[in-house]
């Protein structure tokens, strides 16, 4: 890598080479230089901080990127660490014990495209990550930060998938891990966390209650790295790898349209950040692209704000089967509105019945079993086509963020054996399936 510096927004501080906070080893955060406020641009040292001391706006990682070439990235491992130069992680990250999510398949969805009337459609299938959701990406980056910061405890409030990813990564890293979930979660998501840790805490309340409790604990206890609270800026950067991979797997170019589920809104905004960085670094050609957000109507505060032309998101009380998207007060909601409006996309929502229908649609057309979040995204894609909000002649990518085995109940009463028969030929012949 050469050392010429490419600036990306937010611009690095004048003291771009400023040392990270005390006690950190050199290069602990790779090419990251500071945490910058998304609202006022104020910068603070890299550390376990998430709110701007000036205006309380959210902090985001700022970098001074060296020149990065396609060849350097392609020579890397087939996981997210091939993009380590673009992440707040040390250069030796591949060799330190950690999880290796990413480089999931980008599948050309010809059957689904034909069914929906789209010319070219891809599914970015993140259900094949180590704990079967895209959360392994963000957790890997948060774990790196927790290690570099010398955190004692690795923790999170979660709607389910994050708990699975944190519990698994924490077990492998041998760090004390405590995860907090709403007590009404789907059984598979509870078991998928509990199997990795004996410190799973079920909280009587919804995700927003669990999140509030986590912030309180983070304030009271020293040395806790709550992946999506006090190390959130580092965690969030992991979602950029979805954007990098989509571009690289398309042959180093950007798609025309991307449909992304929205819970806190972090993933959607980071896919956009990834595309912007690839353009700035000259790794892809600059071209217009549209980003679309997907929510379930039972928790659609961002979609509602989009449709009302609002800049702020009014919190709601979630009531939907899409529990992994059930964040009533989404931290990145306003930034999702910005990205979708700026790129010419929209935020749309569908009913729980449409979510169930879309899970079966994706399964029967592409052989992919998605969870309710993916049902939401595919169902919104369908609605966008039917309502003319998405251009069917343009190349489209839909992101599948999780696995259907975690939300079996959602479709358990829709799909069943065609017949239950005696083990005889006559009984089979009578079914009409021959
Ligand atoms: C967490 C999650 C999302 C959305 O994440 P945000 O970045 O908070 O918007 C989408 N799909 C699944 C399956 C998730 O677990
Ligand atoms: Zn600020």
Automatic annotation (TrEMBL):
Q: Name one GO biological process term.
A: L-threonine catabolic process
Q: Which UniProt keywords apply?
A: Lyase, Pyridoxal phosphate
Q: Which residues carry this modification: N6-(pyridoxal phosphate)lysine?
A: 135
Q: Carries keyword DNA repair?
A: no
What Pfam families does UniProt report for this protein, alphabetically? PALP (PF00291)
Q: Which Gene3D superfamilies match?
A: 3.40.50.1100
User: What Enzyme Commission number(s) appear in the record?
Assistant: 4.2.3.1
Among its keywords, does the record have Lyase? yes
Known cofactor(s):
pyridoxal 5'-phosphate
Q: Which InterPro entries match?
A: Ser/Thr_Dehydratase (IPR050147), Thr_synthase-like (IPR004450), TrpB-like_PALP (IPR001926), TrpB-like_PALP_sf (IPR036052)
- Where in this protein does the record put region Disordered? 1-24
A GO molecular function for this record? Answer: L-serine ammonia-lyase activity
Record's superkingdom?
Bacteria
Q: What class of enzyme is it?
A: lyase
**Tryptophan synthase beta chain-like PALP domain mapped to chain residues:** 101-402
The text of the family note is: Belongs to the threonine synthase family.
Q: What is the name of the protein in this document?
A: Threonine synthase
- The organism encoding this protein is Nocardioides zeae
């Amino acid at each position: 890598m050469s050392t010429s510096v490419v600036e990306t927004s937010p611009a690095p501080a004048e003291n771009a080479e400023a040392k990270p906070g005390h006690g950190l080893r050199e290069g602990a955060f790779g090419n990251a230089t500071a945490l910058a406020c998304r609202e006022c641009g104020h910068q603070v040292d890299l550390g376990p901080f998430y709110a701007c001391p000036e205006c309380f706006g959210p902090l985001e990682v700022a970098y001074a990127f060296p020149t990065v070439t396609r060849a350097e990235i392609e020579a890397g491992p087939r996981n997210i660490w091939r993009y380590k130069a673009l992440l707040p992680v040390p250069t030796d990250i591949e060799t330190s014990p950690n999880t290796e999510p990413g480089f999931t398949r980008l599948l050309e969805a010809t059957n689904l495209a034909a069914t929906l009337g789209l010319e070219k459609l891809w599914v970015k299938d993140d259900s094949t990550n180590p704990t079967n959701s895209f959360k392994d990406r963000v957790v890997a980056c948060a774990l790196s930060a927790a290690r570099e910061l010398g955190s004692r405890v690795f923790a999170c409030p979660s709607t389910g998938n994050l708990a699975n990813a944190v519990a698994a990564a924490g077990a492998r890293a041998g760090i004390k891990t405590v995860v907090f979930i709403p007590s009404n979660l789907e059984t598979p998501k509870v078991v998928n966390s509990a199997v990795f840790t004996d410190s799973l805490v079920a909280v009587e309340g919804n995700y927003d209650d669990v999140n509030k409790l986590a912030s309180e604990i983070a304030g009271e206890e020293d040395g806790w790295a709550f992946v999506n609270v006090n190390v959130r800026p580092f965690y969030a950067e992991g979602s950029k790898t979805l954007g990098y991979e989509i571009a690289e797997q398309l042959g180093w170019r950007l798609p025309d349209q991307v449909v992304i589920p929205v819970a806190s809104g972090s993933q959607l905004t980071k896919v956009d950040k990834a595309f912007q960085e690839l353009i700035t670094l000259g790794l892809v050609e600059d071209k217009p692209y549209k980003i679309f957000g997907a929510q379930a109507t039972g928790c659609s505060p961002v979609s509602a704000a989009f449709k009302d032309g609002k800049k702020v998101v009014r919190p709601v009380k979630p009531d939907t089967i899409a529990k992994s998207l059930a964040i009533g007060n989404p931290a990145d909601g306003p930034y999702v509105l910005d990205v979708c409006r700026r790129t010419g996309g929209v935020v749309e929502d569908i009913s729980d019945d449409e979510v169930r229908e879309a899970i079966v649609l994706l399964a029967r057309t592409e052989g992919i079993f998605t969870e309710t979040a993916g049902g939401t995204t595919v169902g919104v894609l369908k609605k966008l086509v039917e309502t003319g909000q998405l251009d069917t002649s343009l190349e489209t990518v839909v992101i599948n963020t999780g696995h259907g085995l975690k939300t079996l109940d959602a479709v358990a009463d829709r799909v069943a054996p065609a017949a239950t028969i005696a083990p005889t030929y006559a009984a089979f012949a009578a079914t009409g399936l021959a």
